[in-house]
Amino acid sequence: xxxxxxxxxxxxxxxxxxxxxxxxxxxxxxxxxxxxxxxxxxxxxxxxxxxxxxxxxxxxxxxxxxxxxxxxxxxxxxxxxxxxxxxxxxxxxxxxxxxxxxxxxxxxxxxxxxxxxxxxxxxxxxxxxxxxxxxxxxxxxxxxxxxxxxxxxxxxxxxxxxxxxxxxxxxxxxxxxxxxxxxxxxxxxx
Amino acid sequence: xxxxxxxxxxxxxxxxxxxxxxxxxxxxxxxxxxxxxxxxxxxxxxxxxxxxxxxxxxxxxxxxxxxxxxxxxxxxxxxxxxxxxxxxxxxxxxxxxxxxxxxxxxxxxxxxxxxxxxxxxxxxxxxxxxxxxxxxxxxxxxxxxxxxxxxxxxxxxxxxxxxxxxxxxxxxxxxxxxxxxxxxxxxxxxxxxxxxxxxxxxxxxxx
Lengths: 190, 207
Hints:
The complex is a heterodimer. Chain A has 2 domains: 1-112, Orthogonal Bundle (Rna Polymerase Sigma Factor, Chain: A), CATH 1.10.1740; 116-190, Arc Repressor Mutant, subunit A. Chain A is 76% helix and 0% strand. Chain A contains 10 helices and no strands. In chain A, 20% of the residues are buried. Chain B is globular. In chain B, helix 4 crosses helix 5 (97-115) and helix 5 (97-115) packs parallel to helix 8 (155-168). Mean pLDDT of chain B is 77; it is low at 117-140. Classes of the chains: A mainly alpha, B alpha/beta. The A-B interface holds A 1-2, 5-6, 8-9, 12-13, 15-16, 50, 52, 54-61, 63 and B 16-17, 20, 40, 43, 65-66, 95-97, 150-157, 181.
């Protein structure tokens, strides 16, 4: 099967919603544009590597938004690590934002960004949740489901409340402002 | 001796899959026809090929969305301006949204003809269609359509592709489909040059 043609079709159909999703996490237009290019390559690789059976369970838009959400989250972690490392040496957060961080701060090789302090903390905090709350968060943030869809999948009527309570609980346990700032960007309260 | 292409021999190749198939088709066979290729946009930096029309270049909006209503709007314009509605054979893959929307235009035209109501806004060319009665408008539709098979793994795209083929069967005199993704359609086209009634073969079925 010619996955390249499929890739072209999918990107055309979903380019605007992918760009919107990226911009909601990374408001800087140039950065978002670069990320879109990176994500397009990532999507092409995912399509090439995936088995037909694996994709057959999905609708194209749900699949592409899941890949987009995972990609954004991964990029988000990378940037969180870079920002914290940079802040150690440069106390002026504003200068850092304007200069080094957004212009490609540092050339360090972060061999495994998912093991960043932010990553470990979040992983652990999510694991500390009960199964129901964790599932709701995964469905909402990573699978992009609406409240109604989550209610339907979980067989409940108040997933929005559980979600809000769980997010607030995690947020309270993040005792560093920077973590909270990053967390709020990725895990909106509503 | 090479047969001179004429009005009835025009083939309209629509979309990426069709363009790819065009390039893989035996040149001596395909050159028997007056080929027009319709693509959404020019993704390479190469100069556009002579027989290729890019839908996006003709759209009124530079940032045209790849959405059904926008595609239809642009397709109407192309079909009236470029004389593409005179094709004898339409080739494309039913999973591509642009091809689906082109078929949808034919569907509208066909429905309008059946109801014998003149709805100029639905037709490809207002000035042209106004002069035509329902019967002759229907005769403008390509007589044949060839659906190019493409394996698509996503369930929603599979469903819409099947639905498109099902619906389109009703408004073409003959509808064919390739059975595999990499089918060589040279033989199919060759038989068309002979006006053969039997254009089916092991890799192409009549719907």
